[in-house]
């Protein structure tokens, strides 16, 4: 199986295009105002339109009002939604757009049951739990907390970077990996060399 790679938090068309040329399978645009990677609808549209074909354009939201998500969908050509908050399954399914659900992993959380609750999701994105922060922290978590029998495709996130992604892919064997802060030179500013190294590390990881 070839691992899929998502680079999240893009903030300009040029970096998005380069990430696609490096082999990214999906590119994430953040619509969460407290994040340093937050985009206006206008800028997000320019990035989304610049992305080459066959690359999945993902919009990330955190407990956003429904009308805001609808306004983004009207202005930005997105292929997939990513929900990082406490959104209900009914909410996530209400936009007539495929979605993935993120969960912040910690001991005691039943991930199999979580997948059953969000059974209409296209995948489960497992991220690190950091109090008060929904994602993009760069923190890792104990991969052994992820069971082998998840009923949804696993997207591994949280603390991944060019140095550890090959190990993560070999040990966890997820469907995809997702990175944001791990390929940045400063908060919200991507590093092209790190993006290229991350994608190469993931896709060349020992099977």
Descriptive overview:
- By secondary structure, the protein is α/β, with parallel strands linked by helices.
- It has one domain (4-203): Alpha-Beta Barrel (TIM Barrel).
- The protein is 29% helix and 21% strand.
- The protein contains seven helices and ten strands.
- It has helices at residues 13-22, 41-50, 66-75, 89-92, 111-117, 165-172, 192-203, and strands spanning 4-8, 26-30, 56-61, 80-83, 99-105, 124-128, 154-156, 176-179, 184-186, 189-190.
- An eight-stranded parallel barrel has the order 1-2-3-4-5-6-7-8. A two-stranded antiparallel sheet has the order 9-10.
- Strand 3, helix 3 and strand 4 form a beta-alpha-beta unit.
- Helix 1 packs parallel to helix 2 and helix 6 packs parallel to helix 7.
- It is globular and about 40 Å long.
- The termini are close together.
- The mean pLDDT is 94.
- It holds the Pfam family PRAI.
- One of its GO terms (molecular function) is phosphoribosylanthranilate isomerase activity.
Rg of Cα set: 16 Å
The end-to-end span amounts to: 8 Å
CATH C-level: Alpha Beta
The count of β-strands is: 10
Keywords:
TIM Barrel; eight-stranded parallel beta barrel; globular; amino-acid biosynthesis
